Amino acid sequence: MARDPISRRSRNRRPDRDTGQPEGAKRARRLRAAAVLLGRAAKALASRLLRIARGRAARRLWRLLVLGLKGLGRLGAATAAGFGRLGLRYPGPVLALFLAFLTGVVLVYGPRPPATYVAVDTTADLECLALNIYHEARSEPEAGKLAVGHVVLNRALDPRFPGSLCEVIKQGGESPLRACQFSWWCDGKSDLPRDDDAWAQSRILADLIFNGGSRDPTGGALWYHADYVDPPWRDKLVEGPKIGRHLFYFAN
Fold first, then answer.
1. pTM for the predicted model, two decimal places
2. Which end of the chain is more exposed for a tag (fewer CB within 10 A), N or C?
3. In this predicted model, what pLDDT tens digit does every residue of 62-86 receive, in sequence order?
């Protein structure tokens, strides 16, 4: 017996559980759900990039982005449906534009490779750096010694200061008016190390800093002073971390 094709299609049709709802309402509900999922995915991506990004400007920007994405979930149903409709209708272009925006933000505000110091006289630079660590921080813990050494390196990489480690340390000369940057260089006393153990450790740490073997515990500071003095120039700078007995500062 021949089968009725119309009856066959009717028997194989999957029952529609939403037959009681208008087609427009079902579509709007799906669009709102898609918009919520897209907002959650974007928020998660921004949060992960926030943990990766470094630097104050990048952190501020990503926090604003996360707050904006949170606000997306509180928009009206019509706006969410419209955004979801656009994403469902043109998923490829919308996703490409969103990823291009995030990539551009990371390239502009994201972390950059640190500048590399190129020494003219490696032996002299290592000696100057080790002497500065010894005289400025030999009684400090290791983190304090590294912090003092990294300030010298940070200055050498900054265009506002001389371009070599020795020139940074000796900036201002040995003037009796104490115009020098590091007090041990212009105090009129002998610079010859007398504590063999402290001098050996200072040389080891200087070599680590010079060859990129240690992380900068100051986060890029260019100034510091002991916690028992109150120099007038500190008010013009941004206070950073305290490491050992020294307070570190950034440019305002």
1. 0.56
2. N
3. 566 666 666 655 555 555 566 566 6
Q: For residue 111, what pLDDT is reported?
A: 55
CA distances to 26, 76, 91, 188 from 72, rounded to whole Å, are: 21, 9, 18, 65
**What residues does each domain of the chain span?**
24-109, 122-250
Spatial distance between the Cα atoms of 156 and 209, rounded to a whole number of angstroms: 13
CA distance 212 to 221: 16
Longest Cα–Cα distance in the chain: 118
Pick from 113, 170, 133, 148: which is nearest to 221 by CA?
148
How far apart CA 155 and CA 171 sit, in angstroms, is 11
Contacts by 158-166 with C-beta closer than 8 Å and gap 24+? 158/222, 161/222, 164/119, 164/120, 164/121, 164/125, 165/117, 165/119, 165/125, 165/128, 165/129, 165/210, 166/121, 166/124, 166/125, 166/128
Distance CA 217, CA 151 (A): 10
Q: Could you tell me if 124 and 168 are in contact, meaning their C-beta atoms sit under 8 angstroms apart?
A: no
Residue 224 bridge partners (DSSP): 248
Identify whether the C-beta of residue 39 lies closer than 8 Å to the C-beta of residue 73: yes
The CA angle 156-149-159, to the nearest 5 degrees, is: 15
- Judge contact between 222 and 234, C-beta under 8 A: no
Secondary structure of residue 145 in the 3-state scheme = helix
Q: Of the candidates 201, 193, 187, which has an alpha carbon nearest to the alpha carbon of residue 149?
A: 201
pLDDT digits (tens, 9 = 90+) for 110-167: 555 556 676 778 899 999 999 999 999 999 999 999 999 999 999 999 999 999 999 9
Token pair belonging to 210:
């010079």
